[in-house]
Automatic annotation (TrEMBL):
Protein name: Pirin family protein
Similarity annotation: Belongs to the pirin family.
Native species: Alicyclobacillus mengziensis
All residue ranges annotated as the Pirin C-terminal domain in the record: 210-309
Pirin N-terminal domain mapped to chain residues: 50-140
């Protein structure tokens, strides 16, 4: 395909297929209505399979939530979650004692390491208007030594995330937000300490591109071992080195060649995931990712025995006060607060 620059094209499904060092990528987009006094949907939930509601109905899903949509307390071990919120809010609580609220452009980077429990609830804070939500959750594997690291999370607040603005010959612009990695001379905020993305030699990139109609941009050559995937999730068409691709497709690209992407007649939105693979075996079962099946069995036994520190919160689906705003309260007592957005 196109001089071997395009290695594969695949229609997107749920979840999106990824390649090492990534495990999965999930795109959530829900048109939540106004919120009630509990910060749940004001509309009736009758007829939904509450607790396992993954069917889009009336424009939204409740997921594992029964009152507030989202994901009540659940364990993870051995990998990282990078949660990129484009619109809406997420409430975070975990077994280390940390909690917070983020959204509308913010990113949470969570290293689960040796094991943690946490929640991801989607509070519907607005009682007088709808509460749309759109986010990506990207699972990034940890190398074996990182799987025994202490849990850690940090916030990349929207206003701190670096952006690149590229203007083409036709004055059309592309804006690229750097969640991880380097692009055009700029570098992202630093990932957590145990992350595979921490070492720049691993070339981990998580980029969000907004491409104006008929704008174009290029990805630089990096290495012939790099896994590079472009997720064209919204728009009309893009042209990659003479090949036209419709929206909602994954395009696997060569990592050692410069590749130009030209947008069609509509606003284009693209997620790019790339990185050098972790040269280790992967053994995964649900929320645990280890290197061997024996390590997986030991991880489940450890969770049954220790509950990864237990759960100190009063309910499995806690939410912050409606007017809490954007903040992070870390287990060491540090508090970060940001102005509300959206």
């Amino acid at each position: 395909m196109s001089d071997d620059k395009i290695l594969a094209i695949q229609k997107l499904a749920f979840p999106w297929d990824t390649e090492n060092p990534f495990l999965i990528s999930v795109h959530h987009k829900d048109a939540y209505p106004q919120g009630n006094e509990d910060q749940g949907p004001i509309v009736s939930l009758a007829g939904r399979n509450l607790g396992q509601d993954f069917t889009l109905r009336d424009g939204f899903r409740m997921y594992h939530g029964t009152r507030v949509p989202g994901f009540p307390v659940h364990p993870h071990k051995g990998f990282e979650t990078v949660t990129v919120v484009l619109q809406g809010l997420v409430d975070h609580f975990d077994s280390t004692g940390s909690y917070g609220r983020y959204g509308n452009g913010d990113v949470q980077w969570l290293t689960t390491g040796r094991g943690t429990q946490h929640t991801e609830m989607f509070p519907l804070v607005h009682e007088d208007k709808d509460n749309p939500l759109e986010l990506f959750q990207i699972w990034l594997n940890l190398p074996s030594k990182g799987k025994s690291a202490p849990p850690e999370y940090k916030m990349f607040w929207s206003e701190d995330i670096p952006e690149i603005r590229i203007t083409g010959l036709n004055e059309r612009k592309t804006t690229i937000r750097l969640i991880a990695g380097s692009f055009a001379g700029k570098t992202s905020l630093a990932p957590n300490n145990a992350s595979w993305a921490r070492d720049p030699h691993h070339h981990v990139g998580i980029f969000l591109a907004h491409v104006e109609p008929h704008a174009s941009f290029s990805l630089p050559p990096i290495s012939n071992t790099l896994n590079r995937n472009l997720y064209f999730y919204q728009g009309d068409t893009i042209d990659i080195e003479g090949v036209t691709v419709e929206s909602y497709h994954r395009i696997k690209l060569a990592g050692d060649q410069e590749i130009t992407i030209s947008n069609g007649s509509a606003e284009g939105y693209i997620l790019i995931l790339e990185g050098e693979p972790i040269p280790e075996e992967v053994a995964q079962s649900g929320p645990f990712v280890m290197n061997t099946r024996q390590e997986l069995r030991e991880a489940f036994e450890e969770y049954q025995r220790t509950q990864f520190g237990g759960w100190q919160w009063e309910r499995p689906d806690p939410v912050n006060d409606r007017n809490a705003g954007r903040f992070a309260h870390y287990s060491n007592g540090t508090i970060e607060k940001r102005e509300n957005r959206g």
